Amino acid sequence: xxxxxxxxxxxxxxxxxxxxxxxxxxxxxxxxxxxxxxxxxxxxxxxxxxxxxxxxxxxxxxxxxxxxxxxxxxxxxxxxxxxxxxxxxxxxxxxxxxxxxxxxxxxxxxxxxxxxxxxxxxxxxxxxxxxxxxxxxxxxxxxxxxxxxxxxxxxxxxxxxxxxxxxxxxxxxxxxxxxxxxxxxxxxxxxxxxxxxxxxxxxxxx
Length: 206
Description:
Radius of gyration: 32 Å
Oligomer: single chain
């Protein structure tokens, strides 16, 4: 009975501790992801705002040599231009990744940050539709985030390892503490059993 009760207490306490550790790990992971992407997403939005200003002047770059404006200095930022039918008509550079995997990069929400993955490459993107004298086009800015993604994956591995180690330690600690907590109860039960045994013996003795 003692071992069964001890095991039940261990399971209950360990389950609660593992839940707490998992919740903390999830919160840390989400916060780190937010920190890594928040500034990057804001930069993409600012670049799109500058792109809007260019289009407002009446200039809309469609040629390969000018499709990437000079204000975009980061080489990890790419510019894709889509027509009204959702066909990719221009890439700022001759990149087979975008041309051969168009479905992976199609924008679905205007002026919202989206995550895109293709052939192991991770991107954060933002897109906006423009009405021009040439027709309706969607400009999409993409920023490669492979380095950030690798960092997040390392953090995830560390957190999962920490959660697993914490779970094992919580089970060990729970088993020990349950045993310590049950010592007085076990002692009292033994004394009670001894008392009942002694009393029964006295009553049977003439």
